[in-house]
Amino acid sequence: MARQARYGAQSRLRALQSDIMDLILERELEAGDPLPTENELAASLGVGRNTLRESLKVLQAMGVIEIRHGFGMFVAPTNFDALAEGLMFRGRLSLRQNGEDALQLLGIRQALETGLLPAAVAASTPGHLERLAEAVEHLEQLAQAGEHSAAADAEFHRRLFEPLGNELLQQLLGVFGKVHRKIQLEAGPATDDAAAVAALHRKIYDAVAAGDAAAAGGLLASRFEELRAKIGALVAGR
Amino acid sequence: MARQARYGAQSRLRALQSDIMDLILERELEAGDPLPTENELAASLGVGRNTLRESLKVLQAMGVIEIRHGFGMFVAPTNFDALAEGLMFRGRLSLRQNGEDALQLLGIRQALETGLLPAAVAASTPGHLERLAEAVEHLEQLAQAGEHSAAADAEFHRRLFEPLGNELLQQLLGVFGKVHRKIQLEAGPATDDAAAVAALHRKIYDAVAAGDAAAAGGLLASRFEELRAKIGALVAGR
DNA sequence: AAGACAATATCGGATGTCCCACCTCCGCCC
DNA sequence: GGGCGGAGGTGGGACATCCGATATTGTCTT
Predict the structure, then answer these.
(1) Closest protein residue to C17 using CA and C1' atoms?
(2) Average pLDDT over residues A3-15
(3) Which of A17, B29, B52, B126 has CA 20 to 30 A from B115's CA?
(4) Domains of chain A: residue spans and CATH
(5) How much is the ipTM here?
């Protein structure tokens, strides 16, 4: 089967990825369903195993499939890990140059969160507020212990947009949250102590509870401005 | 160099990707700069060439590097192609099942665009409006010729958010625009004719020119509702 | 009879090697 | 002097082979 006529196409890999995705669609596989083994796939697609593996790794990175060593490959639930990975790299690279990408990355998160806040606030129910309040309290508890938890911060933002009921959107926001934190780490030692962060989130919560999305957005902005200034200083120092 | 102690890590590939990214950062490479050849990289990272290639392909998919056959590998400018690819697959897969992901994908685009519209409208200058008007006219010209151009549609949306001055954000919006159109294609034959689309965009332009972001958002929503209904029907038919 | 441990089967993970395809550039020939 | 062609280098691809991880299964112990 192998070693057939050479196709003129510049890149066979692209086609291979599509073939694999088509195969998944054709066989009506759902998330969690197993794919054929690498050897079977390689044989049925008429390519070498290494070539196939390159495609599979790419598909894994795209969040299409999940590879479990020694067990098999499966259709994966959506995940944006690769996106986050790539963007964080982008940000780091940018910080070593003109900082442009880092600022834009930050800008995306800010635009997304402030843009979506009104809708989230409007769709918020007492139950949502309750959960958001818990997140704030958790943040405050950690702050009292002098700890600075990125996970708790992320959880607050997650719950902030829970009312929208869009899990994919949540993941996307999570990605930019991760990127934000990474850039913050790279840009220099944290200047904000945990207590201040907790207090800020408490204020945001209050604004949300009061249904004032604009105020909440303004509060969110403060954390961005600080980081932007730090990035500006970092870049200027070169 | 090869065959050193086995690392306990579950996956070496992940580490390899990080190593390559670190190498780029350490050598202070910028976008467009060439990377070492595959053989050099494989040797200096102490892995086999095929293993290295898998990582490189993933990095390419993440938009970190650009690979030009027969020429070399280069640090790439940011691009979200892989993201679009993965999400379009997600949408197609979803349409064959419960349609949930497809709806959420649509929801993300809608949330993003309506959420960002106020800021875009506020930041819009006469120059921006001018360019937006041109896009509308182009759309209308095509409509008169009976043509239905996805590119012209995309261009309109691109110019809509140009005032925000965030290229990365533009690319991200572009991704969800692509995903939207793909889902629309997959969900069934277009029910909207080019003239209606052009007319709608004209109305959106008018709203933007009038500084009425809310109205523009409402107009945008109409295209989403139609598609949602189509998806609902498609899924129900199973 | 039930649970823990060990052998094994089944995958994916990694490598080295060989050859092909493609691009670029330099030098030759017209 | 300009265009064409080949040489060299670089990525693309295919095997064959061995390593490593994981789940399962079967047996041994309690």
Answers:
(1) B49
(2) 48
(3) B126
(4) 12-75 (1.10.10.10), 81-236 (1.20.120.530)
(5) 0.85
